[in-house]
Amino acid sequence: xxxxESCPQCEVPRTLxxxxxxxxxxxxxxxxxxxxxxxxxxxxxxxxxxxxxxPAFAQPYRIVLNETIEAFxxxxxxxxxxxxxxxxxxxxxxxxxxxxxxLHPTFQGIGLxxxxxxxxTCWEGLxxxxxxxxxxxxKLTREYQVTLFGRYRCHVPNRSESEY
Length: 164
Fold this sequence. Notes:
alpha+beta; 6 helices; 4 strands; single chain
């Protein structure tokens, strides 16, 4: 796995060096329990900050997979994976609603009109903008170092969504 072309913090090109991996758990689709994955990390030789390459199917600091989060947001509450993670998913939704006012400047940057007051309409618009939660997360982290749940400067998307 190669590092990004430039550091997302200081934007200096070709300064990221391999730092290793760390383990992280993610939920399983259609099954209970977790799947342990390895996340690649790099350190910038200019600013000293670390960068982690997350797979497109996961959110920074969120255990539940994007596909399950999308199903919950779409109202598919009887999916087995949504039922298994409902407590977490409700917390994620509260976090999104809290974070939404902080996304207003991002809306202008990506060419969307200011977000409507209804969080569900905002969610739908943002996910539709990039085709999926994975695509939205990749575009937002690449350009603005934010997700729909908060600001995460040390994470960048690993690959394009189409590669997963």
